[in-house]
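FW: tagging you since you asked about this chain on Friday. Here's the raw sequence from the shared folder, copied in full. Didn't touch anything.
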Amino acid sequence: MVEETIRVIRETESQADQIVKHAQDQYNKLLEEARKEADKIRTEQLQTAKQKAEQEMEAARSRGDGETAAANIAIEQEIKALKENALKKEAEAVELVISKLV
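HL: got it, structure written out here
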């Protein structure tokens, strides 16, 4: 009877060891799957963030180009007005010098 009890205890311990080993294997498997999923999610979020940043940068660049073009047009118009004003002043100065000489 004692031998039978010892055998049952050993079988139970063996079964317990197998259950613990199986549980540890499952734990490791689940942990690895969780790590892979986390890496996948992180990679996807990084790609999404990069794409959004690139889109925002392109939109800002486009707005900046538009503002630069508008500023260049305004500057060119101001330069043209200044040149026309300078030509008028030059003509007035020439007439004044001629009238003083005569």
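FW: The mean pLDDT is 93.
HL: agreed, and The CA atoms of residues 82 and 88 lie 10 Å apart.
FW: great, closing this out.
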